[in-house]
Amino acid sequence: MSLSEQNFPKLIIPPIENLHRLDVYRANGGYEMYRKALTMQPGEIIDEVKRSGLRGRGGACFPTGLKWSFMPKGNDKPKYLCINGDESEPGSFKDRLIFEANPHLMIEGILIAGYAMGIHTAFIYIRGEYHRWVRIVEEAVEEAYAAGLIGPRMKETFGGSYSMEIVVHKGAGAYICGEETSLLNSLEGDRPYPRVKPPFPANVGVYGMPTTINNVETLANVPVILRMGGEAYSKIGAEKHPGTLLLGISGHVNRPGVYEVPSGLPLLDIINDLAGGVPGGKAIKAVIPGGTSMPIIRGDALEGVMMDAEGLKAAGSAIGTGGIIVMDEDTDIPHMLRRLIHFYHHESCGQCTPCREGCGWLEKVLTRVDTGEATSEDLDLLVDIANNIEGNTICALGEAAAWPTRFTITRLREEFEAKVKPTLSLPVLNRVHSLRPSAHEEAAAVSN
Amino acid sequence: MHDTSHSHEVIEQIPGQIEFSPDELARIEKLKALYPNPKSAIMPVLWMAQKKWGWLSINVMQLVAEVMNLPYSHVYGVASFYTMYFKKPMGQYHVQVCTNVSCMLLGGEKIYDHVCRKYGIGHNERTADGKFSLEEVECMGACGGAPMVAINEDYYENISIERLDQILDAL
Ligand SMILES: Cc1cc2nc3c(=O)[nH]c(=O)nc-3n(C[C@H](O)[C@H](O)[C@H](O)COP(=O)(O)O)c2cc1C
Ligand code: SF4
Ligand code: FES
User: Fold this and answer.
1) How far apart are CA B84 and CA A406, in angstroms?
2) Which residues from chain A sit within 8 angstroms of residue B85, using beta carbons?
3) CA-to-CA distance for B90 and B100, rounded, in angstroms?
């Protein structure tokens, strides 16, 4: 049976009309899981989330229960929860769907997370370009306030002594604000430079206080876990990365969009069945499986690749945000990479020299490659620059630029070779140069 | 990013006296009280100012500094970091064309070039009558609807050059 005919559970985006409205959400059991949470000890909730195996959906796949357990106990200091809705990784557009179709699920997740960690203030950070979705979330928050589901009146509504304030904060156009410590500086009203870690946000976060940062989709999974129980949730999809995933598929496919599916499905089936395959029945040249920062996979290496954290790791990539970009056989790969690196160059905050200068050099050399003015050595130079960025920067934007450069060039080298002038013969070999099959013959010729 | 600019219009001030109304000042105080530290209100206040005056001139940023009790240099430092805070006047209709990967694969660059030619303007420039401005934007989170264009606050997805022309010409 093809994937599109199977009835996968829709836990985050159930097919219910007007679910973004509070009355509809409540008629479908909304806010009852927060009520249930109140009957549990905070520690029990964290254990339940640990048992579920939930891993962060913001890109790094960090186990959510473990992250929550890093927060200090007790109430001697204020603690904060930040919800990361910056969603600016190219190829990612799934949090937007939660804002639009099921914002109260995220809000309920915030309440449960807040109660579990003893947090009384949460900030929902949403990218500025999402004007419309900021309004939808603001309205949902206002509606919940008016109904006494958040704010001081929630004590009357639900009983108990816990209450939570939620503030929606609108960004203003900067990819880097999705990096969690940059987000904290942005929220504080400073220039959003990422911070050096440690200290980690669980100890010193926003306003210098203990802070947890979670992605929108991560928190939307929390009420689902309480409803099903952690044990049952952990049985959905791939063992080491359980749950449903909101996969955004774009590029050369017949039916692009966001699909909610259990983790661990074959990537090729997702592309061919769910997304309807490539227009014109063309072959796939390459796929970026998790947003543009993640290593590209060749079209001829897609067989058997599974769509979950471990499956993609085995395939030499990573799941990131689950944004799948499909490129058909006619795609100009060097041009694609040039455009992509332009993005990272533009978005580098400029704090670290290797990232600030390195991204600029990458863009310059890639422009040369794309316009046919480069030589084969320039390809090695690009990999060399990428290797010198990686691991030498404050935040992971450095890697986010270095990875696509290195992996795209090494994995699809023939695409680049076809666009550059023949190699200049220099009598010195460098590391990557020597990976080319012809390099040994060239070396032999040089030494003769 | 660089402007392929031929018109070097540098207007640094909005002429005349600029100020927030008493209502707006009250809203600003409310915004400050929302956060543990009032400094956090700088982004929403910059948004308010941009809504009111259309862009953030030096005197607007000075006013924001004043109401926020912050040095002008700090306000400028924040405003200049973000692409969506305009440091020069933009058109009545700000046309944002995404050319990042998913849109590029489906013709985003052709759409961008078309709008450049249509109005004779480049990245972050506006037409002489002030009606349109153009920006080549990074991924807007609408890749499933690529290629996409945003006009002011509204997204138009699965757009074609023909359809975009219809929309623009009707404005
Ligand atoms: C450059 C950069 C951009 C990022 N952008 C986002 C983003 O837009 N949304 C997001 O949730 N996480 C983003 N992240 C990851 C966050 O730093 C953080 O890991 C995540 O929000 C944690 O939430 P989770 O544990 O629920 O996944 C980004 C990281 C980097 C390095
Ligand atoms: S790696 Fe790049 S984006 Fe990150 S802090 Fe350094 S300069 Fe800024
Ligand atoms: S690439 Fe254009 S909206 Fe994402």
Assistant:
1) 31
2) 172-173
3) 22
Distance CA A263, CA A285 (A): 24
**A230–chain B Cβ distance below 8 A for any pair:** no
Max CA separation in chain A (angstroms): 88
Helices (H), chain B: 22-34, 42-53, 58-68, 72-79, 101-105, 108-119, 161-169
CA of A378 to the centre of ligand 1 (A): 32
- The yes or no reply on domain A333-439 and CATH 1.20.1440.230 is yes
Nearest CA distance, B129 vs chain A (angstrom): 25
This prediction has a pTM of 0.94
* Nearest residue, CB atoms, B138 vs list A169, A336, A346: A346
Sequence-distant contacts of A1-10: CB under 8 A, at least 24 apart: A2/A269, A2/A273, A3/A261, A3/A265, A3/A269, A3/A270, A3/A273, A3/A274, A4/A273, A4/A274, A8/A244, A8/A260, A8/A261, A8/A262, A9/A236, A9/A244, A9/A262, A10/A244, A10/A260
C-beta B98 within 6 A of ligand 3 = yes
Q: Are residues B60 and B114 in the same domain?
A: no
Contact A93 B144 (CB under 8 A): yes
With H, G, I as helix, E, B as strand and everything else as coil, classify residue A227: helix
Strands across the sheet with B132-137, in order? B125-126, B132-137, B93-98, B149-151, B154-156
- Cβ of B148 closer than 6 Å to ligand 3, yes or no, is yes
For the Cβ of A396 lying below 6 angstroms from any atom of ligand 1, the answer is: yes
Which of B56, B89, B122 marks a domain boundary?
Answer: B89
pLDDT for A133 equals: 98
Ligand 1 close to Cβ of residue A397 (< 6 A): yes
Q: Which residues of A touch B145 (CB under 8 A)?
A: 256
Ligand nearest to the CA of A218: 1
Closest CA–CA distance from residue A342 to any residue of chain B (Å): 9
Average pLDDT of the residues in A1-9: 83
Domain boundaries, chain A: 3-233, 244-328, 333-439
Tell me what the mean pLDDT of segment A304-316 comes to. 98
Residue of A298, A321, A318 lying closest to A86 (CA atoms):
A321
Please tell me the distance from the alpha carbon of residue B148 to that of residue B6, in angstroms, as a whole number.
Answer: 27
Are B104 and A336 a contacting pair at CB < 8 A?
yes
Expressed as residue numbers, the domain containing B50 is 1-89
Percent of chain A predicted with pLDDT > 70: 94
- CATH homologous superfamily of A3-233 equals NADH-ubiquinone oxidoreductase 51kDa subunit (3.40.50.11540)
| Res A18: pLDDT | 97
The CA distance from B81 to A174, in Å, is 8
A396 touches ligand 2 (CB under 6 Å): no
| Centroid of chain to Cα A437 | 36
Provide the ipTM. 0.95
